Amino acid sequence: MPKPLKQIHLAAHFPGVNNTTVWSDPAAGSHIEFSSFAHFARTAERAEFDFLFLAEGLRLREQGGRIYDLDVVGRPDTFTVLAALAAVTEHLGLTGTINSTFNEPYEVARQFAGLDHLSGGRSAWNVVTSWDAFTGENFRRGGFLPQEERYSRAEEFLATVNELFDSWDGDEIVADQAAGVFLRDAKAGSFVHSGQHFDIHGRFNVPRSPQGRPVIFQAGDSDEGREFAASSADAIFSRYATRTEGQAFYADVKNRLARYGRRRDELLILPAATFVLADTDAEARELAKEVRRKQVSGATALKHLEWVWNRDLSAYDPDGPLPDIDPLPGEHTVARGRAQVRMYRDPFATAREWRELAAANNWSIRDLVIETGNRQNFIGSPQTIARTINDLVQEDAGDGFILVPHLTPGGLDDFADRVVPLLQEQGVFRTEYEGPTLRHHLGLTHPDRAHTARVAS
């Protein structure tokens, strides 16, 4: 008997906290005006995407005292944007990254519970940690936490937030459209938590929301991050959008679920993926080359190299050869400075591999970064991209993809109009939303189905 086709999950990332965006393109729009967010969200909803995703930028990215030349300077508060989008969408999930290192459980729980009420059950939280001392300078605690302590705090943070959500039991309230919501039990909202990182007690003042709890996302690729996702998350973002790497990540994370008493379908794996779409594959390949040249300037190429070399490389010519010096070991200099740093587990091996690639292909520093960096995952005609996405999902390289266009806000339009209909024709993507909440879109159970049904009715 043939294996039933998996249904594909699609989401859209408003690309403000990365260097994917080509803001210098004449077709690019604002990253701070609400009209850009609204256009992007309406396009995603028109295409029946699961959700829109906003990353969080808690500081301007700089290195060596300068802002990255391709980074987006300025980003409204995540909750403010998502709350506003709740008013101009009806079905689209609203997902935001909120840091567990520099926030407090009570505040975050109130914000997400509030968003879930305002949106009718469409909120989701991407739980992240931060080790960056530069970001820490913006907060009272300052500094950074060692990796093991970051995840310890994140685990207790999420557990505490869930205690606050669950302090309102489904049986303690009724929803009356005419008269509003009334308490039935004086204990509603009461909580007490005492742990290593948090010692709080009181009364949570937001009643249980339509989803019971927001959907929980996690984005860590380390062993600790994968374990955290397997134990606590509903979905995990992945940076592995290729077949071999994607399948390895998929199998590893899914296989961790059983030790927490969870089924494989209780955690979705959603790689991020960029794309370049054109009428033909050949045209798309040419356009992709042009986009990458715009995404990786000489200055950006040097900054990428500094993430590996862990030292100032500003004196090097980005159109010249790679440095013949070795990376600096340890977590200091660039890695503990004011940088957006990608952590390489073995910078010496990476440097050696890159030198060999550059020598074999006669690549400059900039050429190397273009060829080895975050190249477009899907390049081709609508038919090619639809086929590629479906093949990867059916072959368990992911449960779907979070699409990151290089143009804002209109970069998703062609995909919605030309690729999504092909996936629908193949019977692997919805033609209409199945239910009112994000958990319905993702095929996830609700923590309190009785309460959800009562409020949704």
Automatic annotation (TrEMBL):
CDD domains cross-referenced by the UniProt entry: Nitrilotriacetate_monoxgenase (cd01095)
GO function term, MF aspect, one: monooxygenase activity
Coiled coil: none
Pfam families: Bac_luciferase
InterPro entries listed in its UniProt record: Diverse_substr_monoxygenases, Luciferase-like_dom, Luciferase-like_sf, NTA_MOA
Key word Oxidoreductase present: yes
Domain Luciferase-like, chain residue ranges per copy: 25-393
Keywords in alphabetical order: Flavoprotein, FMN, Monooxygenase, Oxidoreductase
Binding site for FMN: T97, Y151, S222
The enzyme's E.C. designation: 1.14.-.-
PANTHER family: ALKANESULFONATE MONOOXYGENASE-RELATED (PTHR30011), C2H2 FINGER DOMAIN TRANSCRIPTION FACTOR (EUROFUNG)-RELATED (PTHR30011:SF16)
Family stated for the protein in its record: Belongs to the NtaA/SnaA/DszA monooxygenase family.
Stored NCBIfam families: FMN_nitrolo
Protein name as catalogued: NtaA/DmoA family FMN-dependent monooxygenase
